[in-house]
């Protein structure tokens, strides 16, 4: 859970610093990242899954969908 939290924060910083995304989208993704923490009351595993999905969405918004298809040689 610590890794996904730190990685999500890094992705949010990248979104705000270098992301070519509309301001409203930045605010929405930031609020979604905060709202995801309500899942910890229901099921901590759901929190981790939701954070991973948000990391993928924020990464795609910031770096483009090609970011998700990278292969390591």
How many domain modules?
1
Please tell me the overall pLDDT: 88
- Topology as a string of helices (H) and strands (E): HHHH
**Radius of gyration of CA atoms, rounded to a whole number:** 13 Å
Shape by Cα distribution: globular
* Main sheet characteristics: none
The proportion of residues in beta strands is under 5%
Number of helices: 4
Cα(first) to Cα(last) distance is 28 Å
Note poorly predicted spans. none
Structure summary, number of beta strands: 0
| Helix fraction by DSSP (H/I, runs of at least 4) | over 70%
What does this structure look like?
It is a single chain. The chain has helices at residues 2-18, 23-35, 39-42, 44-63. It has 73 residues and is mainly alpha-helical. It has one domain (2-69). Helix 1 runs antiparallel to helix 2 (23-35) and helix 1 packs parallel to helix 4 (44-63). The longest helix is centred in the C-terminal third of the chain and has 20 residues, at 44-63. The radius of gyration is 13 Å and the shape is globular. The relative contact order is 0.18.
């Amino acid at each position: 859970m610590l890794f996904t939290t730190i990685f999500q924060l890094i992705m949010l910083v990248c979104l705000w610093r270098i992301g070519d995304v509309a301001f409203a989208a930045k605010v929405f993704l930031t609020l979604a990242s905060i709202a995801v923490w309500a899942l910890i009351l229901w099921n901590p595993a759901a929190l981790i899954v939701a954070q991973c999905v948000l990391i993928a969405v924020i990464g795609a918004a910031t770096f483009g969908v090609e970011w998700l298809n990278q292969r390591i040689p």
